[in-house]
Specification:
This protein has seven helices and seven strands, in the order αααβαβαββαβαββ. The chain has 220 residues and is of the alpha/beta class. The structure holds S-adenosylmethionine (SAM).
Amino acid sequence: MIAPADAHGLLCYDLIMADRCDRSIGEHQWHSREYVDNWIERDVTRDNVRRPILQQMLTLAPLAPEAEINVLDVGAGYGLVSEQVLRIFPRASLTLHDYSAPMFEHARRRLRLHSSRISYVLSDLRDPAWTAELQAPFDLIVSGLAIHNLREQSLMQACYRSVYELLRPTGIFLDYDLFGLIEGGVGTHRSWLQAAGFERTECTWEEPPLAIVAAWVTNT
Ligand SMILES: C[S@@+](CC[C@H](N)C(=O)[O-])C[C@H]1O[C@@H](n2cnc3c(N)ncnc32)[C@H](O)[C@@H]1O
């Protein structure tokens, strides 16, 4: 279970950085190497808290550990979620997606031992063509602390539609995010996922504003 202090620590950090950088709360500078370095330096201290939660999330995927699956990590950043995917599914082919080159520099270092299994795709989730270079279909799509960055409801809804379209009919989407930042929290996000086409959604863990939401393409 994540400690509330850790969940809210994310928001406190946003507050401090917003103040320091004269920005509004929750605004990030993911294209700045200095900002990314600082964010990771602080966030790495929470990796040990997040790892077991992410591993628990991945057990929801109805896939054999030795399966040669195709996996996408949306907003993969420095690769913490991807790292857990490769621990549980060592034969997976993994695509890390993000729009931050400095984040990918960190991810390449972190995942260097798995480089033959990994592709990196830089694109902006706000661009309707963000999926153009991805090698779909995927068996599993994961995401961690990324989609809330879109802020606008219409952009998050469009992202969920794209994720749905990228998955196989047997596919699953597992998302660990700050769902509680919008009105209606997890319930609102689940309704958007259902509107995007997912037949089944579940919230499997919640420590507001954080939660894990799973979405299945088909309800089998
Ligand atoms: C809080 S970090 C999370 C990184 C990683 N998934 C994790 O759990 O540690 C958010 C990530 O989302 C990415 N991101 C934010 N907005 C994005 C956008 N519009 N398009 C693509 N990536 C975006 C950032 O560059 C950053 O790497």
